[in-house]
Structures are given as structure tokens and as C-alpha cells.
Amino acid sequence: MKPKLIRLLLSGFLGFVCLSASGQEKAEKIPIDHSYKPLTLNLSQDGSKYVRFIIWNQMWASVTKNNPGTLGVDGQGREFTTDIGIRRARLLAVAQVSPRFLILTHFGINNQTFVNGGAPGGGGTGNAGPLPVEVDPETGLGTANGRSAKKPQLFFHDVWTEFKVNDWLYAGMGLHYWNGISRFTSHSTLNFMAIDAPIFNWPTIELTDQFARQFGVYAKGDLGPINYRVAVNKPFAFGAGGRYDSATDRPIAANTLTDNWATMGYFSYQFWDKESNKLPYFVGSYLGTKKVFNLGAGWYHHAESTSSKTANGETRLHDMKLFGLDAFLDLPLSSTSQTALTSYAVFYSYDYGPNYLRNIGIMNVGFGAGTTQGGNGNSQPTLGTGSIFYTLHGFLLPESLLKDKGRLQPFVAFTHKNFEYFEQGNWQYDLGLNYYINGHQAKITLQYSQRPLYESFRRAGSAGELFLQTQIFL
Questions:
Q1: Domain containing residue 143
Q2: Do 44 and 143 sit in the same domain of this protein?
Q3: Fewer CB within a 10 Å sphere, N or C end of the chain?
């Protein structure tokens, strides 16, 4: 990556750390009190009935080495792209209006960049809609007619109602996040240890779900040390079906329209401290405040939800069968130094039908088709029929290191994807550092992510991306 661009983000991250530390030192001789009272509206004098509000923003700046053949918004070839945008801006309200029932509403926006993420059809406001760059086949150049970037539309992420049946069974209905498959499939976005989830933990993302949510009926609870969640969902209808690829002489599955219901569930055995299951959002790192070791397993099944074609044009339907097995550890190591280890590992077995593959790029600002099989910009093969192994490890450094000016947590993640679509699997990695000013409530994250490049169904190289994130929530 370009040294100047890398230095820009590195200096920005170090600047945040130094300014925070020096600012506190000059302002106060004692540690600044970052504590606050949660934003809660009590509905009873004892506080047992309430409405709790949570607000959070995650801002990203990035330097991306684009996939080969990527065009910029001006239609010219672009090796590197820089951007700043909104990864998430959310508001959640949960109301415990009785010991027997609860209501939750969660809305916001995601992924607004300088070229996308806005409301389509803006007309004279400059939001022309998601129109791609038009490329001249002779010159390989083109011009962008415009992509919607401004005035993003708020939408609901979660909307559900829940009733307590007894101490070990709660049931609810709505647009919900009580997902199956793995811990990360129901990950909280407030307390990631890495800068974000690896995305393949949400295997139907934005196709048959609404930002990892589906309409359904769910049940959840605790049976001794076993935490469980199961659901029957009505996935969103999406897809035009798959095809037969004559060049490789094989069927290629893709989503197809169906009104079939889906089932999913996740069970975890909690060996040490029990985690709260009041809300579905699993914690990414407790920063040494809990001693947790869990083993979990889950599934997702959607009958006849993809299709492919044979060589003679016959359509064949396929069930979506997805499974996960994972382990999570959050272990305080020293009461004196307040150090802690957080580790997670998951194995996914995904069957979407023959040779199913999906490329995804988060906050991708690239145009054109690209010349590799990953597409343009920062897009990469993310979901597909095959297997994925992912492991993430972080170490919370001693509290004395920054002398009450915050905490540091380096982390590293490794991923191995082995998709049926390609001739070989591949490893990739993420490497980063969290600076916790006030735990997850106020933190700055720097991360470098490497991704593979594929040509002719084999790995042909790699590219990287450097991120700087600021996060605050209350």
C-alpha cells in the first residue's frame, strides 16, 4: 500500500491516543471519571419497569488497495482508494413494561460512503440512484453517472415483542436477531474485538434477511448451564435462480424465489460465568470483567431456497443447509495488572447448493467489473458452498501501561475458506489494536486486513486494507 496513505491513518490513530492521554494529564492530576448513568426512563418507582435507550456511532476511515481492474468514480483505473464514512449509526430502545413481557425496537443506517449508502431517486438533490460506471469496451475507461450517497434512509433492524412463559422459556415474534448457527451470527455490534465481524458469520446477509434479521417466531432461555435459542422464520423472497456454466461444465447455484419457512437454532454450554440472554446480542470481549468459557453449535435450514440448471437446461432445487461449531473464552489473567485473554474459534459447514459463491465488499467504493474473480474495490469471495474456519485472539495489556489514560488490546484473526467454486482453499488474516478510552463505550481501533485475489479459480495474489474506526455509545 502507498506509504503516505498508511502513514496518514497510522498518525491519525497515534494522534488520537496521544491527544487523549496528554489532554487528560494536563486537565486533571487524577483519572477522569468517564462513568455515566444509562439513558433510562423509569416506568415504576423501583425501576423494575423501564425504557432503556442505547445510541451508538461507528465511523470508518480507510485506505484500500483495490482489486485489479477497479475503476474510480471518474471512470479511471484506481489502484488505491481512500474514504471516510459511517459504518453504523443506530438507536435501540428496549422496554421492560412488565416481568412478563418486553418490546424492542432498533433502527438506524449502515455503510454510507462518499459514493453509496444514500437514498435512491434523489433527482435534483444529486442522488441519482445506484447507477454503475459505464465502461467503453474498446478503451476500458468510463464515467460514473452517479451513485446514491446522500440522505440515507433509516430502517428497522429489530422489531419484536416477547413474552415470558416460565423461568426457562421466553417466546417472541417479529423481525428478530435470535439467530442460529454460531455465537457470531448473533454478535453485538457494540463490542467487537476486531473492527467488525468477518461477515460470513451472517450467511444470508441482505439477500433473504434484512441486515441479518428475518421475520419469525423464536424461543429462548436457559436450561441449567445450557443457553438456547430456536426460531422458525419466513425469509424474505429473493432470487432469480442459478445457471449452468458451460465453460467449466458444472451447475452454479443461486438464490431462487420460494415461500418456504426456515428453521434455525443455537445451543451453548456455559462452563463458568453465565451470560445474559435478555437480549440476543453476544458480547465480543468482556475485557476481563467476566470469566467465560462456552462451547456452542447451531444450524440454519431453508428448503428449496436455491436452484441451479443442468446441461440440458433442467432446473434443480436445493436446500440451504448451514451448520456451525464454536468456542469462546474470556479469561482474566491477573487481578494486579488487570490483563485478560479473549479467544474465539468457529468452524462453518455451508451448503447452498452446487458451487454457490457470493462476493461481498464492506463500504466498497470501487467501480467497474474488476479483472479478478473477487470483483472490484475491496470485494472478495465471502460466502459459498464449502467450509470456513475462523479464529480471533486478543490480549488486554496491563492497566498500568497507559497510567489511567485507557487500555490497549492487540488482536489477530486468521480465516481459512475452502469453497467448492474454487480449486483450492486459502488463508487470510486481520491484525489490529484497540485503544479503549472507556471500555467499548469509547474506543479507537486500527486494523489491517488482507484478502485473496483469484484468477482462473486459483489464488493469484492478495490485497490489503487499512481501517481506522472511532466508536462511542451510551
A1: 118-151
A2: no
A3: C
Task: For residues 219 and 132, state if they share a domain.
Answer: no
pTM: 0.93
Nearest to 211 by CA among 182, 247, 185: 185
Give yes or no for residue 141 having a pLDDT over 60: no
Residue-wise pLDDT for 373-424, tens only, equals 999 999 999 999 999 999 999 999 999 999 889 999 999 999 999 999 999 9
Rounded Cα–Cα distance for residues 34 and 404 (Å):
11
Q: Do 135 and 243 share a domain, yes or no?
A: no
Backbone dihedral region for residue 374 (phi beyond 0: left; psi -120 to 50: alpha; all else: beta): alpha
- Here the cell at position 266 is 443455537
- Contact criterion met (CB below 8 Å) for 318 and 299: no
192 and 167 in a common domain: yes
Give the chain's length: 474
User: Residue 363: left if φ>0, alpha if ψ -120 to 50, beta else—which one?
Assistant: left
Whole-number pLDDT of residue 231 = 99
Identify which of 159, 86, 147, 142 has the alpha carbon closest to the alpha carbon of residue 115. 147
The domain total for the chain is 2
d(CA 446, CA 432): 5
| Residues with Cβ within 8 Å of residue 333, at least 6 apart in sequence | 288, 339, 340, 341
pLDDT at 186 over 70: yes
